[in-house]
Design brief:
seven-stranded parallel beta sheet; 8 helices; 45% helix; globular
């Protein structure tokens, strides 16, 4: 199967590193024009330089805007009026015990992880409908279905994204615009890497061993028994953004390495 996104414009929120950057890389490699987004100009420029080095012919644009509030979304909309493919990837996480999570934490996680996706989808999806074609993706998580006790607020936002994704898919029924959610499992992204690196710095245990220990102790149901790579998650997103995925909508597709013990 050859995926050709030539002539399509894609926006990936939070795409200066990790899964977001890998998705942007995959979309650019398939021929799409890609808009990179991050909070700071320096991070955006660094990501653009990386992708240009890998795909010299790619059409790329960078927009520095903090999508964790409405003002940041408005700045993005002013620079990028329309897209054919929207990947709502932006998200934050933080291990924290339930009784230590304050109101401000709950509100911040909801604004960044959920409302950023709501605002972008509300702005871009109607224009896709008007053109009769479009793709909207939400990066959820296996944590949406088995809430991690070490960060309940994170799990809550990922569950909310599943509800938004399904609701939007039904809202756009018959429009030619598909809406889906991707559920990664534990993935070796920049943020996760930094988390394990900080743990390794305070012990004599190599980071690779810490990753294996994490899977064994906290995600023992994993079938692959390792962290996924960002490229493995991106492959699913690129497929869902393609014309070949035209009959897949309203779905939550797992790239969790079999962590969720379910056949559905």
């Amino acid at each position: 199967m050859h995926i050709d996104l030539t002539g399509k414009r894609a926006l990936v929120s939070g795409s200066t590193a990790g899964i977001g950057l890998a998705i942007a890389r995959g979309l650019a490699g398939a021929g799409a024009e890609v808009v990179i987004n991050g909070r700071t100009p320096a991070r955006v420029e660094q990501a653009l330089a990386t992708l240009r080095g890998e795909h010299p012919a790619a059409r790329l644009q960078g927009v520095a805007a903090d999508l964790g509030d409405a003002a940041g979304a408005a700045r993005l909309f002013a620079e990028v009026a329309e897209v054919d493919i929207l990947v709502n990837n932006l998200g934050i996480f933080e291990p924290k015990g339930f009784f230590e999570i304050e109101d401000a934490d709950w509100q911040r996680f909801f604004e960044v992880n959920v409302m950023s996706a709501v605002r972008l989808s509300r702005h871009y999806a109607p224009k896709m409908v008007a053109r009769g074609w479009g793709r909207v993706l939400f990066l959820s998580s296996e944590s949406a279905l088995q809430i991690p006790t070490e960060m309940v607020h994170y799990g809550m936002t990922k569950t909310a994204l599943l509800a938004v994704s399904r609701g939007l898919a039904e809202t756009l029924a018959g429009s030619g615009v598909t809406v889906n959610a991707v559920l990664p499992g534990p993935t070796r992204s920049e943020g996760v890497g930094e988390f394990f690196a900080s743990m390794a710095a305070g012990s004599q245990t190599p980071m690779e061993q810490l990753e294996r220990d994490f899977i064994r102790e906290h995600r023992s149901s994993s079938v692959i028994q390792r962290l996924a790579s960002v490229e493995e998650v991106a492959n699913m997103a690129v497929y869902l953004a393609s014309p070949q995925a035209s009959a897949t909508t309203g779905a939550a597709l797992r790239v969790d390495g079999g962590v969720l013990r379910s056949i559905a």
